[in-house]
Amino acid sequence: MSTGKVAQLWRWPVKSMAGERVHGLRIDGRGVGGDRTHAVLHEHKGEIKPLTAREAPRLLAWAARYPFNIDGGLDPARPPFAIVTGPDGRSFRWGDPRLRHALVADLGRPVELRRDLAGMQDVGRTLLITCDATLQSLGDELGGPIDLRRFRPNLHLELDAPAWAELDWEGQELVFAGGVRLRLLHPCERCAIPTRDPDTQVKWPQLLKHLNVAHDQCFGINARVVTGGRIGAGEAVELVPSSAL
C-alpha cells in the first residue's frame, strides 16, 4: 500500500489556457470545482467544438484564474466567471464582449465563448493525477527537468511508489486524509499539447515521441470521484489496492 502527500494542486478555468496553482480544491461528481468550465469555441468540419492548443498553440499564452481564491472554497456548483489575461497584459471578465474580440484578433480566427458548469474535460466528469517520481524519471530519460504544467494535472502527488507505477493502478482508489476518495480509471494517453512549452509555445516533438516508444504514450492517470469534499496541499493520501476495496 503506497502512501504519500499532495504536492501540488492545479485548476484550469479555461480549456487550453494557462491555469492557476492553488492551496486547496473542492471536488464533486463533476471533478474539480471550476476546472475547464469555460472554453473558446470554433467551427471544425461544420461542427462547433472547443478550440484547443492542438489547433491554436497561442491559447497557451492566455491565462485564466478566478477573481478570488479561498483555499478549497470554490463551490463546484457555482464557480464565478473566470478572469482571462491576454499576452499583452489586458484582463477581461468572461462574457465581456471585448474578450472575444481580443481573442479573434490574437488567434486570427473567428471564435465564440462557452461556459458549462458540468466541465468540458476531454474525459467527462474526471480529474487528472500525476506523480512526482514519474515526472522526475521522465526528466532523467530526456536529459533535463520537465515542466509539470505541460501535462495540466489537477493533483500532483508524492508517493512512496516507483516511477510509472500509476499506469497499472486502474480500479484502485486514492483515499485522502480529509475523506475524499477517488477511483482510478485508465492512464492518460497524451496528445500533442504537452509538446508545447507553457511559456513560449515552442514545440518539442521528441517528448511525445519518447512517451510513445517508452510508455505507450501515457503520462498520468484519470480518476473519478467516489466521495467528494476538499483536498488541501500537503494532505496525506494512500493508495488502496482493488483487492482491499
What does this protein look like?
With 245 residues, this protein is mostly beta strands. Strands 1-12-11-15-14-13-17 form a seven-stranded mixed barrel. A hairpin with a 4-residue loop joins strand 13 and strand 14. It starts with a strand and ends in a 5-residue tail after the last strand. The mean pLDDT is 95.
Order of helices and strands: EEEEEEEEEHEEHEEEHEEE
**Secondary structure: number of strands:** 17
Cα end-to-end separation: 12 Å
Count, helices: 3
Largest sheet: 7 strands, mixed, barrel
Helicity range: 10-25%
State mean pLDDT (0 to 100 scale): 95
Task: Give the helix/strand class.
Answer: mainly beta
How much of the polypeptide forms β-strand, as a percent range?
Answer: 25-35%
Chain-wise SSE layout:
Layout: E1 3-11, E2 20-22, E3 24-28, E4 31-32, E5 38-44, E6 47-50, E7 63-65, E8 83-85, E9 91-93, H1 97-107, E10 112-115, E11 127-131, H2 132-142, E12 155-159, E13 173-176, E14 181-189, H3 205-215, E15 218-227, E16 229-232, E17 236-240
Parallel strand pairs: 11-12
Antiparallel strand pairs: 1-2, 1-12, 1-17, 3-4, 3-16, 5-6, 5-10, 7-8, 8-9, 11-15, 13-14, 13-17, 14-15
In short:
With 245 residues, the chain is mainly β. 13% of the residues lie in helices and 35% in strands.
